[in-house]
Specification:
The complex is a heterodimer. By secondary structure, chain A is of the alpha/beta class. Chain A folds into 2 domains: about 80 residues, OB fold (Dihydrolipoamide Acetyltransferase, E2P); about 140 residues, no CATH class. An 8-stranded mixed β-sheet of chain A has the order 1-7-3-4-5-6-2-8, with helices on one face. In chain A, helix 2 runs parallel beside helix 4, helix 2 runs parallel beside helix 7 and helix 6 packs across helix 7. The relative contact order of chain A is 0.16. Chain B is an alpha/beta fold. Chain B folds into 3 domains: about 80 residues, Alpha-Beta Plaits; about 220 residues, Succinyl-CoA synthetase domains (Rossmann fold), CATH 3.40.50.261; about 170 residues, Rossmann fold (3-Layer(aba) Sandwich). Chain B contains 17 helices and 19 strands. In chain B, the strands form 5 sheets. Chain B has a 6-stranded parallel β-sheet, with helices on both faces. In chain B, helix 8 packs parallel to helix 9. The longest helix of chain B has 21 residues. Chain B is globular, with a radius of gyration of 23 Å. The chains are: A alpha/beta, B alpha/beta. The interface between A and B is medium-sized, with 22 and 17 residues.
């Protein structure tokens, strides 16, 4: 069994050596299945930071099902995925901008979500994409609620806790419910509280670069969440 | 085998359609690929190209895909076309790094100091968006065409009441503080302010000024209909006033096709009282006597020549006379040139360049047909089948509905140029190449491809003008060199090219 030594990690990464099974391998990330079926990820790029992730110079050649050890020994904390609920509010100047993100649902690849806006739990596992677009929408929506310090509707929480989507997506939604967020989302939240248009456009642009449709669906969900709150 | 398929109710922008067609043409076995919105004009073009469109159930809101390929490839290619439309292969995997606002409100939230909106949408949506922009206190550049006259009047009246201006519709070029919007060339900034009812007219005057070392601060487009009676010159008058009030502008220029009588009078009166040296260029008008503060010109290069004389404190009349002497020499050269055939074909991408060239050719040739002829009764029954002496503007609505303007995608004009060149009755082919931001990346090479592939034993005489500057992205010098290498006679202005081409045709018509 090989031991991997990432050089940086998120603050929620275990502080001791862990043994995990490779779940899925991508060009810029490897996902592992750890304790309690939780996802852990090794990534090569800092913008792709997500909860329980660690940065490594290059990804080793691994296959799904292999077991590895990962040591936090040489790594420092580079990203805190937690959000401080309700600590800062959105700059009202940006309202017209974040409101237009909901329009991504008019994209014919995402318009299947439009029928479920009243009951977003119905979007679980719905739509195209490696992470189904409905899950990205829900994650954005829940993130907006959590970030604003608004309680997520009990019915939605219960529905989301059911096993209705892919393993990876389920982890992503669960993290959002627990107040953990991807780095791209966190940067966006920070930019929305600030007054720099270029920072905001850049942060929103980085979200759009996320996956084929994921970023769009996430922004639409986030916009819907902010709209509901306001 | 030429086959087509209709995709109901799907709209794609013309850039996407052009690029998908180009991608399909790269595939082995594809002789032709064309993607158009199914307007009447586009169906006619496809029919002329040999596609069986009779009986096709399609409306202008449908996409029509035509492919010329071996029959067994068709289904696979259609699938490829659909996949290209949904996931364009020329786009990288990642979105641009900065988010681009999708709505006017969103854009204004990040750019609250903006005072102009550029609107480029299919005509039927453009007026509503223009009104939204005006209501938000923004001036409007309305690039879109196919906006109705009633909508134009409503927009312009609203703008006028609210201290704003609507530049357009069908306004291809605007220059604000030396920065071009739409089609524009890399030109110096200087003390000239231009009001123009024509896009390529503005480009040509700016280019000719640049070649003479003079620059333009503002070039405000108005749209061609602005100077007609129905609109009453609303935007032109606002623009003249704005330029007159700018202390950095010393010469005010007004360019366009001849206005209606009452609008002309209003424009001239406003220029007379604007307190600055002024020059008008109403193409094709009879020459008029200059006034101390107002000079009258009838050609685009002439206009630039007179403006430069005013800026340099020289005699405008003398400058004009010198230019006319140069034109005489070019005419003499044209008359001496040798070619086979009898007729002149002017094939243009720039509308005003076509208009100016035709108005010059009329001085030499008895009858000239066209898709937008200067003389009543000379309209071609079919723009795709020119006869005798003909001038075709491929930027006219009939060629641009749901398709790219030929300055961006000259391939259709190139195909027509090749077809015209094969006609043994054609003696001279006159054409324009318009460079600058927004224009095709290498337009000369495209034309040369058609010239080199000619089957006719002795081809026509090719005469061209390249409208551009050394600073343009396509590189003026390279574009000219490519044409010259293929035997094209290239001239320094649109007027010079037209004089040479017309003079070379004179006397041949009756043979």
């Amino acid at each position: 069994m090989i031991t991997l030594y990432p050089f940086e990690r998120s603050s929620d990464w275990p502080k001791t050596m862990i043994v995990m099974k490779v779940h899925s391998v991508y060009s810029k990330a490897i996902n592992f299945e750890g304790e309690n079926n939780r996802r852990y990820s090794l990534i090569t790029g800092e913008p792709d930071y997500l909860p329980r992730a660690a940065l490594i110079e290059a990804l080793p050649f691994l296959k799904a099902g292999e077991t590895v050890k990962i040591s936090p020994e040489l790594s420092s904390v580079g990203f805190d995925p937690s959000i401080d609920p309700g600590s800062e509010s959105v700059n009202p100047l940006w309202q017209p901008l974040w409101r237009e993100w909901k329009r991504f649902l008019l994209d014919d690849r995402l318009d299947c979500l439009l029928d479920h806006l009243e009951n977003p739990e119905e979007m679980l596992g719905l739509g195209p994409g490696t992470t189904p677009a409905g899950d990205d929408f829900i994650t954005g929506l829940v993130t907006a609620f959590r970030w604003s310090g608004v309680e997520v509707n009990e019915r939605l929480v219960k529905a989301l806790e059911k096993n209705g989507t892919t393993w990876f997506s389920a982890q992503m939604i669960r993290d959002a419910l627990n107040g953990y967020i991807w780095k791209r989302g966190k940067k966006l939240c920070q930019a929305l509280t600030g007054s720099s248009a270029s920072e905001l456009l850049s942060a929103a642009g980085r979200i759009l670069q996320w996956g084929h449709l994921s970023g769009r669906a996430w922004l639409a969900g986030f916009s819907t969440g902010l709209e509901g709150i306001s | 085998m030429k086959r087509l398929e209709v995709v109901k109710g799907e709209y794609y922008d013309s850039v996407t359609l052009m690029l998908v067609a180009k991608e399909l043409k790269k595939i082995e076995g594809v002789a032709e690929a064309t993607l158009n919105m199914a307007t009447e004009a586009n169906l006619h073009i496809m029919k002329t190209a040999g596609f069986e469109v009779d009986g096709v159930n399609a409306s202008p809101d449908d996409l029509i895909i035509g492919i010329d390929c071996p029959g067994e490839l068709f289904d696979g290619l259609m699938e490829t076309a659909r996949s290209y439309l949904s996931s364009p292969p020329w786009k990288g995997g990642e979105e641009p790094s900065e988010y681009t606002p999708r709505t006017l409100e969103g854009a204004l939230s990040v750019l609250p100091e903006a005072d102009i909106a550029l609107i480029s949408l299919p005509g039927r949506y453009a007026a509503a968006e223009a009104m939204k922009a005006l209501e938000r206190g923004l001036n409007v550049m309305l690039y879109s065409d196919n906006v109705s006259l009633e909508e134009e009047i409503e927009l312009k009246r609203y703008a006028s009441r609210n201290g704003l201006i609507v530049m357009g519709p069908d306004c291809g070029t605007v220059v604000i503080n030396g920065e071009g919007l739409g089609f524009s060339n890399a030109c110096p900034v200087g003390p000239v302010g231009i009001v123009s009812a024509s896009g390529t007219g503005l480009q040509e005057v700016m280019v000719q000024l640049a070649r003479r070392g003079a620059g333009v601060k503002h070039g405000l487009g108005t749209g061609g209909r602005d100077v007609k009676s129905a609109v009453g010159g609303i935007s032109s008058l606002i623009a003249i006033e704005a330029l007159a009030n700018d202390p950095e502008i010393s010469v005010v220029v007004v360019i366009g096709k001849p206005p209606s009588t009452e609008v002309r009078e209003k424009l001239v009166q406003t220029l007379r009282s604007c307190g600055k040296q002024s020059v008008t260029c109403f193409m094709g008008e009879s020459p008029r006597k200059d006034e101390p503060q107002l000079k009258y010109t009838t050609g685009l290069e002439e206009c630039a020549t007179v403006v430069v004389a005013l800026l340099d404190g020289k005699d405008a009349g003398k400058a004009r006379e010198d230019l006319m002497n140069e034109y005489l020499k070019i005419e003499a050269l044209g008359r001496k040139s040798e070619t086979s055939g009898r007729f002149l074909r002017g094939l243009f991408t720039g509308g005003t360049l076509c208009y100016e060239a035709e108005s010059i050719a009329r001085r030499y040739l008895e009858s000239i047909y066209g898709n937008n002829p200067l003389k009543i009764g000379m309209k071609l029954p079919d723009s795709l089948k020119p006869i005798q002496n003909s001038f075709i503007d491929y930027g006219e609505d009939e060629f641009t509905q749901g398709k790219l303007h030929p300055m961006i995608d000259p391939s259709f004009r190139t195909g027509q140029l090749k077809m015209q060149s094969e006609d043994p009755s054609v003696a001279v082919v006159l054409f324009d190449v318009v460079l600058g931001y927004g224009s095709a990346p290498d337009p000369s090479s495209e034309v040369v491809g058609a010239i080199k592939g000619l089957e006719r034993k002795r081809g026509p005489l090719y005469v061209a003008y390249v409208c551009g500057t050394s600073g343009d992205p396509q590189c003026l010098e390279r574009q000219i060199a490519v044409l010259k290498e293929a035997g094209v006679r290239v001239f320094e202005s649109n007027a010079r090219a037209a004089i040479f081409a017309a003079a070379a045709t004179v006397g041949r018509e009756r043979r």
